[in-house]
């Protein structure tokens, strides 16, 4: 049995164990097999109670712009209950941690091997000796259903193997009314572009490998992205500009270079980001108004059930860019971010800190923004909250107009390295208004005031519950 055998599919009935589990592993192109393998770990999986362990391929990926460290990831599909075994191949083992901690994964550590059980798909980080730069990322999916067939009408099908675009822009351009299916084991060495199109589905278990931009959506509507993994995009993993009705699900991303954001939306309307894992060396999620050729404000954005890891910059960055020439300016409203685990923030430049940053510049008005059920596990450098009506002379031509109607509810942080949070209006006419901190726990203590904030007098109706 070879690691790069196509779509190994096992249905195992284990002696003495009545339940069954299905496990699907992915092929690895021969051209990548040696070049992308990381032998830091040996990872195997089997149905709970089964006898035969199935060997997984451990990909090597780079993380963290500051250190450009080699980490690992594995992936497979399953249903039922499975047992995962991870062996650390180098050095002693003193401890192991499986994050996000909110998942409550119980493990058994013996020597250099940790075992744990999964009964549903999760995206996890397995960390030996608190090493977060050379960790193992474990991505699992449900078994695929209703996958399209090659040759189906309006289907652009990428089989397992390496695919490179042939146009001068080095991207794959998608027409309207198309399903793009990227098979497990397929690697696209180029970005996907949706420009002035509608009704496009980009699905599958394949990977985008070192594209200039992962998926670029401009002036388009009704776009679905589901199941892809992006490895080392030079810039955005997903970019949306002046588009609407975008859904992004089960996306995983690793980036380690400057300006390699995760998901950026500019002047977009009705966007859902669900169950993504973003580890980026710039903002993981950034939501803006006008920038470049995109105009019209932003509204109805939802981010949920996701894990964010900012090796550099913000896990969540809202506001920023806008149209300084618009009168009175552009508005961003109705943003809801909930059930999110933030594994780390590391940013030492004060204007760009904040696990949850709401930052109004360039005549932007930001309103009706809600953060709910957010769990922050670690801040290496940076702060928890950053709310500011600003003028940033690097990016802005005008100050923002204001921030209002903001809720932080059920926020939990346990850590020691954070700097002061920020809450500052700009002047008497450009304030921060109507902010509610509801059940915010910092190291087990409920937040009751702005003692740990850098603040000014341009605030109105800041409440604590």
> Percentage of helical residues?
under 10%
Shape descriptor: globular
* CATH H-level superfamily of the largest domain: Single-stranded right-handed beta-helix, Pectin lyase-like
Radius of gyration: 22 Å
Structure description:
- Strand 1 and strand 2 form a beta hairpin.
- The radius of gyration is 22 Å and the shape is globular.
- It has 465 residues and is mainly β.
- The strands form four sheets. The protein has a 20-stranded mixed beta sheet that branches. The protein has an eleven-stranded parallel beta sheet with strand order 15-18-21-24-27-30-32-34-37-39-42, with no helix packed on it.
- It has two domains: 133 residues, Dex49a from penicillium minioluteum complex, domain 1 (Sandwich); 230 residues, Single-stranded right-handed beta-helix, Pectin lyase-like (Pectate Lyase C-like), CATH 2.160.20.10.
Features:
single chain; 465 residues; mainly beta; Dex49a from penicillium minioluteum complex, domain 1; Pectate Lyase C-like; 20-stranded mixed sheet; 1 helix; 43 strands
Gist?
The protein contains one helix and 43 strands. The protein is mostly beta strands and 465 residues long.
